[in-house]
Amino acid sequence: MSELPDAFEPDECARYLRALAAQDGGVLPLAEAALALASYERPRVGLAHYRQHLAALARDVGRQPGAAGGLADRARALNEVVLLKYGYSGDELTYDDLQNANLMRVVDRRKGLPVALGILYLHAARAQGWDCVGLAFPGHFLIRLADGAERLILDPFHGGRVCDAAVLRELLKAMAGQEVELAPEHYAPVADRDVLLRLQNNLKSRLLQMGQHERALRVVETMLLLAPDLPGLLQEAGLLQAELGNLRAAAQTFEEFIRHAPEGTARHQAAILLQQLKAKLN
């Protein structure tokens, strides 16, 4: 896939994300895709500076003494470069700041959300050829380094700490409630597309909380570029379009949702809403 231009319009960004969506799974250029997503909020901002910084992160991790060692050494190399040399940290004071989910602003400010910092770790680790993936941990993004059967889970947001079962259990209860018990699905790997969707979902959720539904819809539309057939996103887009008075667009989106949604209450409710929208349009 050709690289994005140094400065681009939203339609160029959309083509790039659609091309990523057309890839059948596998490893995606996460940092580059996150820059593309960031560009929707900062159109026509040059990318050369950010690409150079990402290249420096990867290069400097590879130059660390532990880069040729085992998983603990690799984790230490990532932390030494990302956290210590370049000064990144989790933004605990202004966690809900929208800038924390925009990779450009994360690079500028050297702080961000767990998933944004995780993308930097994934980028730098994969540049060394290391096996590194994001995990499906609820409410807090984690990454996993692997070497054969050996596994190591890292928390980029909390100082790059290594998470054993006790740490994971404590973190899970803080995120999901004291009654929730740690299970294998909580540390299962996720597809790269889901990492990008998680990044955007953070942005969308905060915009909805702020009552900025038009901007939230634009974020959902970027998510649909990556996952055009995902029923939940189609449903959410249709509801936001209807709320904003975009009735024709809402009707088209609900038709698409009905085509892809499984049988159930949500599909039935969407069909009723679709008929109501069509009645208003006629």
Describe this structure in words.
The protein is of the alpha+beta class and 282 residues long. It has helices at 10-22, 30-38, 48-62, 71-85, 103-109, 114-127, 165-176, 192-209, 213-226, 231-243, 247-260, 265-281, and strands at residues 89-90, 111-112, 131-134, 143-147, 150-155, 161-162. The chain has 2 domains: 10-187, C8orf32 fold (Roll), CATH 3.10.620; 192-281, Tetratricopeptide repeat domain (Serine Threonine Protein Phosphatase 5, Tetratricopeptide repeat). It is 57% helix and 7% strand. The strands form 2 sheets. A 4-stranded antiparallel sheet has the order 3-4-5-6, with helices on one face. It has a two-stranded parallel ribbon with strand order 1-2. Helix 2 (30-38) packs parallel to helix 8 (192-209). The longest helix has 18 residues, at 192-209.
Summed up, what is this model?
The protein has 282 residues and is α+β, with helices and mostly antiparallel strands. The chain is built from twelve helices and six strands.
Structural domain tally: 2
Q: What structural class do the secondary elements suggest? A: alpha+beta
Gyration radius, to the nearest Å?
20 Å
Tell me the β content.
5-15%
What's the story with the biggest beta sheet?
4 strands, antiparallel
End-to-end Cα distance, whole Å, is 44 Å
Major sheet strand order:
3-4-5-6
Q: State the helical fraction.
A: 55-70%
CATH topology of the largest domain: C8orf32 fold
Q: Supply the CATH class of the largest domain.
A: Alpha Beta
String of helices and strands: HHHHEHEHEEEEHHHHHH
Number of strands: 6
Poorly predicted sequence stretches spanning 5 or more consecutive residues = none
CATH 2nd-level architecture of the largest domain: Roll
Mean pLDDT: 93
Number of H- or I-type helical stretches = 12
Tell me, what's the shape? globular
